[in-house]
Design a protein that fits this description.
Layout: H1 2-24, H2 29-34, H3 45-76
Helix pairs in contact: 1-3
Amino acid sequence: MYTFFVILHAIVAVLLIFIILLQVSRGSTGSAFLGGSSDSLLLGPAGDVFLKKVVVVLGIVFVVTSITISSLVKNRGVSFPDASPVAQPQPPPSE
């Protein structure tokens, strides 16, 4: 279950990055990137609304997977190592 959510989280993160970059660069680079004009499906006026909705949905999924992964890690009892080294017991001196 943990692995599934980590993989889903990574896929959603990559999709979010891709779609956000596509929105920002839609004027010149975005149309060249997709090989179409600015009147294409994803980059036209209707596509702008569509991309915003996709970003909202992916953002919600990203937050939900983040919370789920953190609760799974907490329930597993996984602890992260401290930054300070732990004193190791010294063996008794040999005679």
